[in-house]
């Protein structure tokens, strides 16, 4: 059991990559706090998963609220005793050409995908510093390193996550805490539900491996970075993208 006895929070844990990570890490012996918007399926999913390995608790949290994020970390400590790993995964899409993007559209994506990751990091690191240990994982994207038409706010936020992670890792290393980011390629989750069949085929063609990724393939990478197997890995950005970022064929 690679996470035996560890207590872990996953934000945006009710769906897609977050849910797969909750399931994977539970099977490795961790106790999980599945956190998501109150209106999500999180409570029912956590109840169904509780005891499939470790404990699985639901705690609602909107990452755009500092108060809710602080309460999530405090609630985890109260219920489980520590915060050993956090996967800061909550995120939204929001495709729109830059010239058509309103302030509200821009700010929403930045607030969830970049500032939300900062809020979770701040609260998690305060607790991990007090413990003298922990592993924080921030969810970026292939678009953290590459541009894409229509993804102006998303790509800005995800690039911000990659470089914020480096700074956090430098600050956290002397305090016994590791911080890394992960860069999924296109993964078959509800985030891609709006794609037409033609767009889906076009996206598949961009991945040398010849298919979209699966959520469990991201969960496996998160599991590694959260575990003590990654004890010398910090400040890194791990691409799990079927070769998308390697270049054109
Ligand atoms: N699916 C992909 O192709 C892909 C590729 C690269 C990166 N990512 C990133 O992976 C992460 C998970 O995406 P997914 O594909 O599993 O999407 P998803 O839509 O299946 O899940 C996202 C979850 O985040 C939650 N969420 C949204 N806003 C929130 C908020 N303000 N506070 C708390 N939770 C909130 C949603 O309720 C949902 O459960 C995101 O950060 C996304 O940007 C996804």
Sheet of most strands: 7 strands, parallel
Query: So, CATH architecture?
Result: 3-Layer(aba) Sandwich
State the domain count: 1
Strand order of the largest sheet: 3-2-1-4-5-6-7
**Could you report the average pLDDT, rounded to the nearest whole number?**
97
Could you tell me how far the N terminus lies from the C terminus, measured between alpha carbons in angstroms? 39 Å
Q: What is the fourth-level CATH superfamily?
A: NAD(P)-binding Rossmann-like Domain
How much β-strand is present in the residues? 15-25%
In the CATH hierarchy, the third-tier topology is known as: Rossmann fold
Given this structure, which CATH class is correct? Alpha Beta
Molecular shape: globular
SS class: alpha/beta
Molecular structure report:
The chain is α/β, with parallel strands linked by helices. It has a single domain, classed as NAD(P)-binding Rossmann-like Domain (Rossmann fold). Helix content is 43%, strand content 15%. The chain has seven helices and seven strands; from the N terminus they run βαβαβαβαβαβααβ. The chain has helices at 16-27, 42-49, 66-80, 103-131, 152-172, 197-205, 215-226, and strands at residues 7-11, 31-36, 56-60, 85-88, 134-139, 177-184, 237-240. It has a seven-stranded parallel beta sheet with strand order 3-2-1-4-5-6-7, sandwiched between helices. Strand 2, helix 2 and strand 3 (56-60) form a beta-alpha-beta unit. Helix 1 (16-27) crosses helix 7, helix 3 (66-80) packs parallel to helix 4 (103-131) and helix 4 (103-131) runs parallel beside helix 5 (152-172). The termini are far apart. The mean pLDDT is 97. The site of nicotinamide-adenine-dinucleotide has 28 residues, from helix 1 and helix 4. Residues 11-12, 14-18, 36-37, 40, 62-64, 89-92, 112, 116, 139, 141, 184, 186-187, 189-192 line the site of nicotinamide-adenine-dinucleotide.
């Amino acid at each position: 059991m690679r996470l035996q006895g560890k207590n872990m929070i996953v934000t945006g844990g009710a769906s897609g990559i977050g849910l797969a990570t909750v399931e994977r890490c539970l099977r490795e012996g961790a106790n999980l706090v599945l956190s998501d918007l109150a209106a999500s399926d999180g409570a029912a999913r956590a109840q169904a998963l509780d005891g499939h390995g470790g404990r699985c608790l639901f705690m609602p949290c909107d990452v755009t609220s500092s108060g809710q994020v602080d309460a999530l970390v405090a609630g985890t400590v109260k219920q489980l005793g520590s915060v050993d790993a956090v996967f800061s995964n909550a995120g939204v899409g929001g495709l729109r050409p830059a010239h058509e993007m309103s302030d509200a559209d821009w700010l929403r994506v930045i607030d969830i995908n970049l500032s939300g990751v900062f809020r979770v990091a701040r609260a998690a690191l305060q607790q991990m510093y007090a413990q003298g240990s922990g592993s924080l994982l921030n969810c970026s994207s292939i678009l953290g390193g590459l541009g894409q038409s229509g993804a102006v706010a998303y790509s800005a936020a995800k690039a911000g996550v990659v470089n914020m992670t480096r700074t956090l890792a430098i600050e956290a290393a002397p305090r016994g805490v590791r911080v890394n980011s992960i860069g999924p390629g296109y993964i078959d989750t509800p985030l891609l539900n709006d794609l037409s069949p033609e767009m889906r085929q076009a996206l598949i063609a961009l991945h040398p491996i010849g298919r979209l990724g699966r959520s469990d393939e991201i969960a496996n990478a998160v599991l590694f970075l959260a575990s003590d197997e990654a004890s010398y890995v910090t400040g890194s950005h791990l691409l799990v993208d079927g070769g998308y970022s390697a270049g054109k064929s």
